[in-house]
Each structure stands twice: as C-alpha cells, then as structure tokens.
Design brief:
homodimer, alpha+beta, four-stranded mixed β-sheet
Chain lengths: ~300, ~300
C-alpha cells in the first residue's frame, strides 16, 4: 500500500492517492480535481494559519446562516460566479444543429417555496402590491422554433420595492409574485404582474460582509426569474432582465447575459389595458424561450 | 467601468475583476487566486448542476454540524490535506541558519477547550482512565539547541479507548488528558499520562459520509498533541506519534511526518516507577522541541 506520509511538495498527489479507491469513477474524478486545485490555491497564495482560520470561521458562519428560506452557500456560489459558470456549462447557447437557444442564468436563492399553479393570464400580484402593472407574454419553442404545448413555465420575482415573498411573508403571503403556468396549444403563455425592482441580495450575513470587505456592491438589476421544462426538452433556468435597470453591467451574481435583456415597453391605451385587465398605463414584455432537445446522458 | 456581463470562457477573469477594488491588497490577492482556481476546477470536471447542488448541500450540512465542541469544517480541511499543507507552509523544517526544527502538523478539531495549567510532573489522567502508564519527558530548545526556560507546552490527547474529554465529558470531565506546562530553568518539561490509542475522527457527519463514499477509512494513528510557544520564538503545533501504531502510513488527516514518530519504550523497573510515581511497568518517551526564531513579519 502507498504510504500517505505527508510531503509539502507532493501534497496534492498524496491526498489524491487517498481517493484512488473511490468506487464511483466520477466522484473519484471530482475529488481528485478538487484536491489538486485546492492545494494549488493554498500554495499560490501561501495561505497563512490565520487566514485559514478566518476561512474556517467564514464557512462555518455561512452554513449556520442557512435555514428554510435562506441559503447563504448559494449566495456565496452566486457572488463568486460559480453558479453562473455551472449553469452556462450545462446549457449551451446553441443547439447541436446550431440553432439559437435561450441562455441560462442562475436560479438564485429565492426559489425556496414552490410556485402556485395558476391559469394563463392570472395576476401574480395577489397581495395587491404597489407597482407599475405589467403584462408578460411569451411562447416556449424547441430549437427549430416549433411551439411546445404543455410546457411548464415557473416564474418568480421581487416586488417594486425589491423584496420577494419569503423575505416579508407577513406583508405578502407566501406564493405572491410567483406562478407555475402551462403553455397552451400554440406553446404560448401570459400573465399579469408588476414591474420588478433592482434589489440587494441579503447582505446581513457572511456573504454581505465579504462584499463590503472587498469593495463590491450587493445589487442585482431588475429581473423576472423564468424556469421552463417540457418532456423531451432540456430544462432552462433563466431571467428576463429589465432594460435600463441600474446594475445591468455589474450584477453582483454575474447573472446578466446580453441576450436576456428586454425592453419593458410602456403602453398608454385604455382599450388595450381593459382587454388585459390591467390599469392604464402599463408595461409589456415578450419573452420567447427556446429549449434544446434532451440529450441522453 | 468594466462590464461584468457574463462570459463562460472569461468567467474567472470577469469575477476576479469584481474584486479589483478590494482595499486590502492581500485580500484582493487571495480572492483573485481563489476565484481562478475555483473556476478552473468547475471547468476541468464540467461540474453539473446536480453535482453543484450536492456540493451546496454538503457544505451547508458541514456548517450546521458545528457547535462548541465539534468543528466539521476543520475535519473537512484535515481530511482534504489542506490543514496539513497550511501548517507545513507556515513552519519550515529547517531554520534560516539551516538547523533542524521540529516539524509541524495539524492542530485537529479537539483543541476546543483550554488546557488547565499544571505543575511539571503532574498526571494528565485526572479521571483515572484505564491505560498503560506513560512518562513523557522533553525539552524546548531554540534552533541552535539552547534550552528555552519558561516556554509554554500545551498538550492534549485521547485516552486508551481513543476518546478526548470533549467527546465524553460526563465520564472524563473537561480538562482530563490535557495540560499546559511551563518549562523549567533548563528548558525541560515532564508529565505523567497514559499511552493514547489510535482513534477514528468523528464520522457521524458529512465528512464521515464523504470518507465512506470514497472508500477511505476514518482512523488516525496514536499520538499526543503538543503546541509550544515562547517569547521571540515561532510557535509550533505538532504531535508525537506512537511508533508501531496502526494507521501511521494512512492517517486520514495526513498528519504524519517521519520526524515526529517516537518509540514509547517499555520500562519494567519498580524503583524507576516509584521515582516517577507511576505503576510498574510503564512507558517512556522523550520529545525535544526545537523552535525557530520569530521572524519579523
């Protein structure tokens, strides 16, 4: 048997050797790579015992900040750009046939309660929050543009003050500004809501402290979360970003891709407002979601 | 201002750019390196969303396993060889003059209660635990071998069943098998104890699950922890390992260095036993600790 007596120069190699007997080859690959990069980081910066201690404390506090409605490790992953990278690797912007697909972005930490099923056209703003009325229309299509009936469109968003229901459950009630829709026969969906505001990520924990210590801000540009799935197609987790929102170019979770920014067009038309069942004036935005075929793993 | 719109190929660069305004240059260096290696890891293995989720869950559970007497993140760092690497980087095996120093090893997760101050010669085995009596003698010297009077020698160890006081506080009482000694005029120290046993690290948490999933064992070879400090000298955190102990070549925290293994010699001599105040037969071990001069940071 290989000896695992420690040696500074060969440290990553020695620790990787301890994972040589991992039954699952993929887990072995992941652990070996993780150890290699982790040791390279520690050596590159010559991490001191004091810095290591600060790191242990930071990770511990991050774990202890988590509960049913707060996921501080996802926030950490988001603010280090890791969530965005994982989503991007899993979701190509073009299909195998070269067709343009809807790009993915982070799920974020607020998808912690299930969105209530709603009829097409329903108003997400159940609590009657103040805000600019908004009509969202769209369609789910496959890579070649064929509409997908029966697709699930899960949406969630902040209110005009920048808060999600789970952040103020007493004022809003859980499920407010969330909805799970099913596309109709021609693949389309629509719903009513209010225009979301840009907002800070929860910054009262270790991640917020990290942002302040590194001179970063804690803001995300205004967006609506959209997660679409349909049998035989690849699920996409994405956002529609509000064009002109502050922080579009410096999203603290690196979630913005050019292709996901949309004009939320102002409409001033009493008849159209009445037809949609919203107050006049209002905003409209269209968001077509193109999904790739599911590849067999 | 630089745009931070996400791009998969340049992801590490983009996230690193967000840390460009970090006021403390050292923190900026650490965060930049961390992000670079973290993104390289994610790309190397093409981490999937499911694996990322498992990682988030693992880190969250690791944080939530921690309390006053359990530090699961230190266990994780230990079992990935990171703690050992940090200690080794901070503590060279040779002084700037080329003299041989006592090598460092991990502090481990059991130094969670302060060791009670004890007189030289005191018995660490306050609770009268069963085990082979053992006399530990030694000396603290500087790099050129000059004895260091008044050095603090902090020791802690498991009992003959492999448990620390904090793991069974009702049976042992906190402070049992721990002691803080001060070297006398000729730099020497001594105390009585029992021979420690090899033991498993706490394996009922996420780290234990990781070890089982990767086919690793959870054992550490028998050892006594020793942490020595003195004014003007560099503190060293180390162990004396018991020669012949199982797992010396496969310590699950990679803590073993050849130079730290000592024979715990069996002595069968009634007169000597009586002189030390221990039952006959007993074991003896000598551990000389050589500390480097403190370098001005």
């Amino acid at each position: 048997m290989t000896t695992l007596l420690f040696d500074e120069d060969r440290s990553a190699e020695i620790v990787a050797a301890s994972f040589a007997g991992t039954p699952d080859p993929r887990l072995r690959e992941v652990m070996t790579s993780l150890v290699t990069h982790l040791h390279a980081f520690v050596k590159d910066v010559r991490l001191t015992p004091g810095e290591w201690e600060a790191g242990i404390r930071f990770l511990t506090e991050t774990g202890q900040m988590c509960d049913e409605t707060r996921q501080e490790f996802i926030l950490l992953s988001d603010t280090l750009g890791v969530s965005m990278l994982v989503e991007s690797l899993a979701n190509s912007a073009v299909s195998t046939q070269g067709d343009r697909l809807t790009e993915a972005t982070v799920e974020g930490p607020f998808h912690v309660v299930a969105s209530p099923s709603r009829e097409l056209g329903a108003d997400l703003n159940v609590a009657g929050e103040p805000g600019e009325p908004c009509v969202v229309t769209g369609r789910v299509v496959d890579a070649s543009g064929v509409p997908v009936p029966g697709a699930k469109v899960d949406v969630w968003q902040a209110n005009a003050a920048g808060f999600y229901d789970v952040q103020q459950p007493d004022e809003m009630g859980l499920g407010d500004l969330r909805g799970l829709f099913t596309t109709d026969a021609d693949g389309s969906y629509w719903f009513r809501t209010i225009v979301p505001a840009h907002y800070p990520i929860p910054a009262d924990g270790p991640v917020g402290r990290m942002l302040r210590q590194t001179g970063r801000h804690e803001w995300r540009p205004a967006h609506i979360h959209v997660e679409v799935s349909a049998p035989g197609l690849r699920r996409v987790t994405t956002h529609v970003f509000v064009a002109g929102s502050p922080y579009l170019e410096s999203d603290t979770v690196f979630g913005v891709k050019e292709s996901l920014i949309r004009d939320f067009v102002e409409v001033d038309d009493e008849a159209e407002a009445a037809a949609y069942g919203v107050a006049n004036p209002f905003r409209t935005v269209e968001f077509v979601v193109a999904l790739d075929a599911e590849t067999t793993p």
